[in-house]
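Case study 2.
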Amino acid sequence: MKTVLITGGTGMVGSYLTKKLLKNNYNVIVLSRNPPKQASTNNLQYAAWDINKGEIDTTALAKADVIIHLAGAGVADKRWSNKRKKIIQQSRVDSSKLLVTALQKLPNHKVQTCISASAIGWYGPDTPESKLNGFVETDLPYNDFLGETCQLWEESISPLIDLNIRLVKFRIGIVLSNTGGALAAFKQPLNMGIAAILGNGSQKVSWIHIEDLCRMFLFAIENNHLNGVYNAVANVPVTNKELTLTLAKVQRGKWYIPVYVPSILLKVAMGEMSIEVLKSTTINNQKVREAGFTFLYPTIEHALSHLKNSE
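Prediction:
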């Protein structure tokens, strides 16, 4: 029975993934700054780390066969001040460096695989080529805040390769889940019967159902031929308008009114972050499919209907 150590294990994806790993008979250790005292069971343990102090429970690290690295401050949690952007970057880079340094100092570790989160923020706005075929893993990072953040994020975990650890990086799209994230934000106006289409609604959204994302993590653990970077998005990107109206139909049937939210209002409300919700990014997932992964929820209709029925 393998032991999987998860950073960021108390977040939306980490919590879902922890439950899935336990159901699949893995031992799980969740690294947390404030580990709960009474939460550990035979298969689930909590261990302490403090990124700011550069501290990590090396006893827990020594038990791990696999590391899943999800830690990082929420990109959409707060307005992007210069201070917030620094926190977003440093939380990812410093946590990666802490893992690398700890493993370098732990010669008898048994970690064979590390699966690290990254994001489709690596890519910029759509180009004529990407509109046709989608961005692929070999495309260069875009020269903006998220592009730079993703590049630093991926580079900071890459020294694990020198320790003969198989490293897989998933560039994750917009994760659809009932427990938070983007879908919760999309649902809010629908509580008042308003389907809020952002800007002109034509921007492409590359998304993934949380179940498929967590299945992808398990797939990477169990298939040693996976190596390097993979785009973690569903088969069919959709426009913001398509996503919003499909969600409205699933949630409210015919009882909703489509309303376009002007770009200028989004810019006033969200500041620099509005660039991301108005940006069109079409991502190609052919590489992970060719590696043998199959999606349970490849289309937005299937994904949103399942999430509605799972509420």
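Residues 82-104 form the longest helix (23 residues).
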